[in-house]
Amino acid sequence: MNILMIASGYEIGGVTYAMRNLCNELIARGHIVNMLNLPGISELPEGFDKRITLINLIGFAKYWNLSMAAVKKTVGIKKLWLLLLGIIKKATNKGPLWRRIVFNGLYIDKHYDISVAFRQSPVSYWLAKYKCDSDLSVGFWHTDADFENVSKLEDCLHYPDKICCVSDAITQQMINKYPQLRDKFSAVYNLFDASSIRALSDDTVSEYDSNMFNIVTVGRLSPSKKITRIPQICYVLKKKGLRFKWYIIGDGEERADIEKAITEYNVSDCMILLGAKSNPYPYIKNADLFVLTSVWESYGMVVTEALILGIPVVAGNYPALHEILYDGVN
Q1: Which of 185, 193, 242, 306 has its CA 20 to 30 A from that of 213?
Q2: How many alpha carbons lie under 13 Å from residue 14 in its C-beta half-sphere?
Q3: 277 in helix, strand or coil?
Q4: Where are the extended beta strands (E) located within 172-252?
Q5: Is it true that 2-57+106-187 and 202-323 share their CATH fold?
Q6: Residue with more model confidence, 155 or 218
C-alpha cells in the first residue's frame, strides 16, 4: 500500500515515538510511506526509517503556521508581506477559511491508499481528507475525550473517514461523548519496538546515586501530568527519613512552577529536573521505581516501556491504565 502520513510536529514524546514505530513497521511489512512535511524540517528525527520520503510544502503552504516571531526575524518587503499574511491568518484562523487560503495551491501529485493524520488537529485532519487523493482518510486520537481543550477539536471530527483511538477506554469515551459519530471510532493501539527500547536502554547514566533509592518520572511538565505534586510528596518522604532521589525527565510550561515548589518544600537535594532527553530509556532501566503522576493519559506509552525494561511501576488511576497495569500482577 501507498500511505501518506501527516503530522504537525515531531516534538520529543510518546506521540512522535508512536508515529515512528508505526511508520517503521509499515515499511518493514513492505508498504511505501511518505510524510507530508508540515514543520518544514530538513530530515526526520533519529530513529525514523530512512526510506520514508518527505514531501515538502511550497508557496503559501509553507506559511500555514506563521507566527509573529517569524515575521520579526525578516526585513524589508518580505517583512511587510508576511505581516499582511499574518493579519489575514489572525482574521480567518478560527475556522477552515485560513486552511483553504494557505493550502489553496497545495497539490499532492500521487494517489494514496490511506492518508493518516497522526496528531489530532484541525489542520492535519483537514489535509488528510480534502487535500490528499486517497481511498481512505484516517485520524489518530491521542487525548482524553474530557480534556479541557478537546472542545477546540470538535469541529474537525467529521473530517476523517475513520478515527483511531489509542486505547479502548478512549474509544468508549469518544463514543459516549459523540454517539452520532460512533461508527468512526475504533481502538488501534500504539506499537512498541521492544528490542529497540532494550538496546537504547544500554547507554550509561551518570546522574543516578547508587547509594540512594532512585525514582524516575518521564513526561512533559504540563498540567495533565501533575508533576507539580512531586515536590510535596518528596517533602513527606524526606520527613519520614527515607533516602531517595527523584529524577524528572521532561520539559514544559510548568517548569518554573515546579522549580518554585522544589525551593518552597526544600527538596532540591532529592528532586532533580534533568530536562527533556531524546533517549529516556537508560534512565528508566537504571531506576529502582518508575512513577507516573498523570491524572489522565490516552494510553500511557511510558508505562509499557517501563514494563518492557522490567522496572516496577506506580501510576495514577486513570481509565486506560487498566489496559496496561494490573494491580499486584505487573
Answers
A1: 193
A2: 22
A3: coil
A4: 185-187, 213-218, 244-249
A5: yes
A6: 218
Cβ–Cβ contacts within 10 Å for residue 50, how many?
Answer: 8
Comparing CA positions, the residue from 95, 101, 131, 136 lying closest to residue 115 is 136
Distance CA(89)–CA(160), nearest Å, equals 24
Average pLDDT over residues 6-27: 89
pLDDT (average), residues 280-295? 96
Domain ranges for the chain: 2-57+106-187, 202-323
pLDDT tens, residue by residue, 85-142: 888 998 888 778 999 999 998 888 899 999 999 988 889 999 999 999 999 999 999 9
Supply the pLDDT for residue 93. 84
Place of cell 516496577: 312
With DSSP H G I counted as helix, E B as strand and the rest as coil, what are the percentages for the chain, rounded to 5? 40, 20, 40
Which one of 3.40.1190.20, 3.40.47.10, 3.40.50.2000, 1.10.150.20 gives the CATH number of domain 202-323?
Answer: 3.40.50.2000
- E strand or H helix at 258: helix 255-264
pLDDT band at residue 149 under the 50/70/90 scheme? low
Evaluate whether 125 touches 96 at the Cβ level (below 8 Å). Answer: no
Instruction: Encode pLDDT of 51-94 as tens digits.
Output: 999 999 988 898 898 888 888 888 888 888 888 888 899 888 87
Rounded to whole angstroms, how far apart are CA atoms 233 and 314?
14
Which grid coordinates belong to 241? 527519613
Fold (topology level) of 2-57+106-187 = Rossmann fold (3.40.50)
